[in-house]
Amino acid sequence: MIQSTPSLISDATLCFYGAGSMAEAILRGLVEAKLTRPKNISVMNRQNADRLLHLEKQYGIVPVTTSALKDEALSAADVIVLGMKPKDASEAIRTLRPLLRPEQLVISVIAGLSISTIRHLIGREQQPVVRAMPNTSSTIRLGATGISFSDSVTPGQRELAHAIFDAIGISTVVDEPLIEAVTGVSGSGPAYVYYLMEAMIDAGIKLGLSPEAAKRLTVQTVRGAAEMVNSTGEDPGELRRKVTSPNGSTQAAIEKLDQFSFQEGVNEAIARCAERAREMGEAIRKEAGLD
Ligand SMILES: NC(=O)C1=CN([C@@H]2O[C@H](COP(=O)(O)OP(=O)(O)OC[C@H]3O[C@@H](n4cnc5c(N)ncnc54)[C@H](OP(=O)(O)O)[C@@H]3O)[C@@H](O)[C@H]2O)C=CC1
Ligand SMILES: O=C(O)[C@@H]1CCC=N1
């Protein structure tokens, strides 16, 4: 039996408990970055066997389908990644109670679910838990992840968690109460950017561009703007001012956005997202009888 969690991904066995889009984004990043052998990754879900077979075919991971094999994989793994929806979390995590060893690292990406709730559900106050909030851009190794650690996470396990999320993008450690802010900014963030892109493409089409041209120009504009901020190190505000000639067309556009309270809208949206994540966490606690 393994007594301590390895600090290198290449030596660790990982078990994905929940096999949806976020789990796939993470495991794909790990496999494509060749940080671990696919055979070190086992994946299970509730019922969708076709999904597991698809992941096996695509990435070479080990699908786990029977309940006996599930128990075995969960008990044996060095790291268990919780990747189910918040509504399914309480029941799923409780089933780990009789299976987990005290040194196994639990990594949760579940929105709103606190470290303290996870430990209550597992029934062990000192279980090492990492609470992470990644985003779907992890699929192409451009993810942005906020991470917080329970006090029992060892330095080796911290290193391991960083290695996992750095393999699929960048990671930033935050105090746990700020994970909801991370959810608001970057966890859900890709959706706001896609929403903006949908609106830009739509507007271009309304002005007479073909759908293909509107999409191509929009995609490259967003990609270029993000890369300008990233590679020049200049503030987005400064870069915006460089596009905005006095009394020119951009200024006219920004004034129109301000008439619709653009900044206030984004502010309120991100604050509401963070609040909703907290609500989901509270609902899990309530369902589990913890409040
Ligand atoms: N999508 C995103 O952009 C992000 C999501 N998250 C978080 O990631 C989590 C997963 O989201 P996402 O990947 O989109 O969800 P999906 O709906 O794509 O996947 C959920 C997975 O959980 C499985 N599952 C449900 N109940 C159980 C159970 N009792 N035992 C084992 N597996 C179970 C489902 O299996 P089956 O299909 O068989 O029912 C499915 O494989 C959420 O908690 C979300 O908050 C975090 C950051 C970003
Ligand atoms: O919408 C959600 O609840 C999840 C959390 C972050 C992104 N998607």
Automatic annotation (TrEMBL):
The record's Pfam families line, in alphabetical order, gives: F420_oxidored, P5CR_dimer
**Domain (Pyrroline-5-carboxylate reductase catalytic N-terminal): residue spans on this chain:** 14-112
Domain annotation Pyrroline-5-carboxylate reductase dimerisation: ranges: 176-280
Reactions it catalyzes: L-proline + NAD(+) = (S)-1-pyrroline-5-carboxylate + NADH + 2 H(+); L-proline + NADP(+) = (S)-1-pyrroline-5-carboxylate + NADPH + 2 H(+)
According to its UniProt entry, the protein's GO biological process terms are:
L-proline biosynthetic process
Keywords, ordered alphabetically: Amino-acid biosynthesis, Cytoplasm, NADP, Oxidoreductase, Proline biosynthesis
Keyword Amino-acid biosynthesis applies: yes
What molecular function terms (GO) are annotated for this protein? Answer: pyrroline-5-carboxylate reductase activity
User: Where does the UniProt entry say this protein principally localizes?
Assistant: cytoplasm
Query: Which protein, by its recorded name, is this?
Result: Pyrroline-5-carboxylate reductase
Organism equals Cohnella lupini
